[in-house]
Amino acid sequence: MQKEKVVDYLYDIFNSKKNGVQEEGINKMISKAVTMLSELYGVDVSEIEKSLKLGQQIEQEHTKVDVQFQKIIALQHLAEKLDYYTGSKPKDWAEKELSTEKSERLNEVREMFGRLLRDEKFIFGNLDEEKGSKLNENKQFYKLLSGDLNTLKMDEQYAHAELSFEQLEDGEMAIYLSEIWSAVRGNGYATKLLNKIKNICLKMDVPLCLRASTTNNIKTNGGGLNQNDLVKWYEKNGFRVAEKYNNFETDSTAPFMIFNY
């Protein structure tokens, strides 16, 4: 693999992004560029992916463009020099740097929501119409986001859901829907509860993610959706498959999906 060929391809990605090619198409081009760089330097693809992740986060600190442009810039630098972002630093510096950034992001978000939770007048001052359990539910969400709660259980008529606050692969924080199910099938109870959770996440500007698994999603007493129909149900409700944000164990039978991100 010649360096000039890689550089030319990266230039094509940049122009494609600038000309409005859709996100999925750009992601495929970026993946191909990663493979080309691994062939150029004779290293495993995982090494390029690790350097790209670090480079993207560093570029994020210096640019105001979106994540895909940040990755393209990082790839261009890596085409110049494989150790562009690490130089003479220790071998495990990149892993420690990424781990530190994620930890700082987690503390920053928890501190922010904890501060808002303490200032109840700021949070709930314009929510006079929300009384009783609904107001308390909002408070419970803020407690989850601030770290005061590890798990939040929600019940709505015949539907049940359990939520936690987790970190995505790119360091952003998100609500994780570990399970949602209804004791009664075919009456839209699970959909109603899911919409309620989605609306709260939109209001608080927090992503909502999940593992689309038939073992913990949409369980019913009379049977439930199969795996394919479950994924379609989530897609119908605004979710998309996004394994690149998955910070959990990969399961090919149950795709990682995200909403509001």
List key phrases describing it.
261 residues; alpha+beta; Aminopeptidase; 2 domains; six-stranded mixed sheet; 9 helices; elongated
Quick structural summary:
The chain has nine helices and six strands.
Explain this structure to me?
With 261 residues, this protein is an alpha+beta fold. It folds into 2 domains: 3-80; 150-259, Aminopeptidase (3-Layer(aba) Sandwich). Helices cover 53% and strands 13% of the residues. The chain has 9 helices and 6 strands, in the order αααααααβββαβαββ. It has helices at residues 3-18, 23-41, 45-62, 67-80, 93-118, 120-124, 132-146, 189-204, 227-236; strands at residues 152-156, 159-167, 173-182, 208-211, 240-241, 256-259. It has a 6-stranded mixed β-sheet with strand order 1-2-3-4-6-5. The longest helix has 26 residues, at 93-118. The chain is elongated. It starts with a helix and ends with a strand.
Reported CATH architecture of the largest domain: 3-Layer(aba) Sandwich
Helix content: 40-55%
The largest β sheet comes out as:
6 strands, mixed
What quaternary form is this? single chain
Note the topology.
Blueprint: H1 3-18, H2 23-41, H3 45-62, H4 67-80, H5 93-118, H6 120-124, H7 132-146, E1 152-156, E2 159-167, E3 173-182, H8 189-204, E4 208-211, H9 227-236, E5 240-241, E6 256-259
Parallel strand pairs: 3-4
Antiparallel strand pairs: 1-2, 2-3, 4-6, 5-6
Helix pairs in contact: 1-2, 1-4, 2-3, 2-4, 3-4, 3-5, 5-7
